[in-house]
Amino acid sequence: AQQKSRHQTESARLLRLRAGLSNPSLFQGQVNHSTVDNRPSSLFLRAVKNNPSSPIDPATLQAYRETAYRVLAPPPFALRIGQPSAELLARHRRRGVACSAFITACNPHSWPVSEEANAQRQAELAQELTRRGLAFEPGIGQHPSNDWPGEPSWLVHGLALEAARRLGGRWEQNAVVWSGADGMPQLILLR
Q1: In this structure, are residues 183 and 100 in contact, taking their beta carbons and an 8 Å threshold?
Q2: DSSP H/E element including 80
Q3: Cβ partners under 8 Å of residue 166, min gap 6
Q4: Residues 45-50: contacts with CB within 8 Å, 24+ apart?
Q5: In DSSP terms, which residues pair with 35 in a beta bridge?
Q6: Most buried by CB count within 10 Å: which residue of 66, 82, 128, 186?
Q7: Is it true that the peptide bond before 75 is cis, omega within 30 degrees of 0?
Q8: DSSP 3-state assignment of 40?
Q9: CB 157 within 8 A of CB 92
Q10: How far apart are CA 8 and CA 63, in angstroms?
Q11: pLDDT tens track for 52-85
Q12: Of 53, 62, 48, 139, whose CA–CA distance to 101 is shortest?
C-alpha cells in the first residue's frame, strides 16, 4: 500500500510537472485547462471530440498545445499547434511533400525514462525512418515554462496522417503533431 501511495504521489507530481503547474491546488480541478480567456479552445475541443474517452489528462493536453515544436535543421523554426507555419510550407515545397509529422520516441505515454533509454529509442526511430526511406530532420519539443525536459524529435516529411498515427502508436506516444497542405500543425491524439 505504501508503494502504491508513493507511485500515485509521483504520478501526480509528474503530471503537474508536465503541465507546468507548480501549485498542487491548481491541479485539483480549480482551473479549466480547456479554456483560454474563459472561452473553450477550438483545438482542445476538437482533440477531445476526436477521442472523448482519452486517458490523457486535460492538463497534459494543455501542455502539448502550449509546447513549441522546434525544427533544428537550418533554417530553424518553431511549430505551434493551430498556427499556420510559412516556414513549414517552404520546407514542404523544398521537399516536394504535402504533409509532415513531428514525432518523438521519448518518454512513452509521457512517463519519463532515462536519458539513455530516450536516446536509444530516438536512434531506433531514426533507423526505422531511414529503412522506410523517409526524409526527416531533427527537432525538439519544449514547453516554454515548465520543468519537463525538452524531448528530441524528428520532423518527418511526407508522412500521411494515418501513417503518423500508426508510427506514434508503435512508439507508445500519447499524440503526434501532424501538418497537411495548409501548414497548420494539429495535435493528433493517439489514446
Answers
A1: no
A2: none
A3: none
A4: 47/187, 47/189, 50/188, 50/189
A5: 40
A6: 186
A7: yes
A8: strand
A9: yes
A10: 20
A11: 567 888 988 999 999 999 999 999 999 999 999 9
A12: 139
- Please state the pTM of the whole predicted model: 0.73
Find the distance separating the first CA and the last CA of the chain, reported in whole Å. 28
Q: How many secondary structure helices (H) and strands (E) does the chain include? A: 6, 9
Measured CA to CA, the distance from residue 162 to residue 177 in angstroms comes to: 12
Return the bridge partners of 71, or none.
Answer: 77, 139
All three cell numbers of 100, joined, read 509532415
Copy the grid coordinates of residue 56: 490523457
Name the β-bridge partners of 103. 154
CA distance 148 to 95: 32
Q: Give the Cα separation of 159 and 132 in Å (integer).
A: 11
Q: How far apart are alpha carbons 190 and 53 in whole angstroms?
A: 11
At 95 the three-state DSSP class reads: helix
pLDDT per residue over 124-176, tens digit each?
999 999 999 999 999 999 998 877 789 999 999 999 999 999 999 999 999 99
Grid cell of 97 as nine digits? 511533400
**Do residues 171 and 105 touch, judged by C-beta distance below 8 A?**
yes
Residues with Cβ within 8 Å of 54's Cβ and at least 6 positions away in sequence, in order, are 47, 48, 61, 189, 191
- In the numeric block, the cell 531511414 is attached to 130
